[in-house]
Design a protein that fits this description.
Rossmann fold
Length: 261
């Protein structure tokens, strides 16, 4: 029975993992650690609810105790300002390395880690973002998952820091993946954010991604240290999902175009 620790499990992504991971493997034993009083964004009544209220930055020894015996850690928590977020990331990954048996980790990056590599405000991607598909002579090539991080702001730099830690763990022989999450919300709805339909991700697909990572890890086929975009199988994706489909068997089933039918 895989023991899973979600650091930040009450949020948009974590609430989906608590809801949908058991669909892919009913033996998942999930514990969520969050700040005391954190809002639970789960909407499904059957979402796993084994909670630990803990400020991990204030009590690092308790995080170490909590992490013991887990097979998979999914790091989702956020903190501000920028420096404190990176300090929390250092704490989580350093605590992972202290474990007698280092668990696999999926660390939260974001599509915004590569904001410097493209723009939805100019050229063909601007036209795409406005859904003027008839004005596009040919769909642009999708941005490959293998592209290095190109952060343009402190948020992107925080996510780059997570990716660097994942690569560091991989070099030490441990299982680590950086998930470049797309647009995920607790209601699995469309938003008015410019171009959101091109990077939307359903919570179920996010859970399937985590399960695919862990299954590949157990099968000794995981390319540890990799970063993958995690978006649904949207008709107008701008981010590549063929690489994670091929490498870990990620097979998303949702499509944002359902909101436009």
């Amino acid at each position: 029975m895989p023991n899973v620790l979600l650091i930040g499990g009450r949020g948009n992504i974590g609430s989906g993992l608590r809801t949908y991971l058991p669909k892919f493997d009913p033996t998942y034993q999930i514990t969520s650690v969050d700040l005391p009083g954190a809002q639970d964004k789960a909407t499904a009544p059957n979402a796993q609810s084994n909670f630990v209220d803990l400020d991990i930055c204030a009590h690092p020894s308790q995080l170490n105790d909590l992490m013991q015996g887990h097979d998979l850690v999914v790091y989702l928590a956020r903190k501000s300002p920028h420096e404190e977020m990176n300090q929390m990331t250092d704490l989580v990954f350093e605590t992972l390395l202290k474990q007698n048996s280092v668990p696999m980790v999926v660390g939260s990056s974001s599509v915004h880690a590569v904001d410097g590599a493209y723009s939805v405000d100019e050229g063909i991607l601007s036209t795409l973002s406005e859904r003027r598909f008839n004005d596009i002579p040919q769909m642009p090539e999708r941005i490959l998952s293998t592209i290095p991080a190109h952060p343009t702001n402190p948020y992107g730099q925080q996510k780059t820091h997570v990716e660097e830690w994942a690569q560091r763990l991989a070099k030490k022989g441990h299982g680590a993946i950086a998930a470049r999450w797309g647009g995920i919300n607790a209601q699995n709805k469309m938003t008015t954010e410019r171009g959101y339909f091109a990077l939307w991700c359903h919570q179920e697909d996010a859970a399937q991604f985590v399960d695919a990572c862990y299954t590949s890890y157990k099968n000794a086929t995981l390319r540890s240290g990799a970063h993958y975009f995690v978006v649904s199988d949207n008709t107008y994706n701008i981010f590549d999902i063929e690489i994670p489909r091929k490498e870990i068997g990620y097979n998303p089933i949702h499509n944002s175009e359902v909101f436009y039918e």
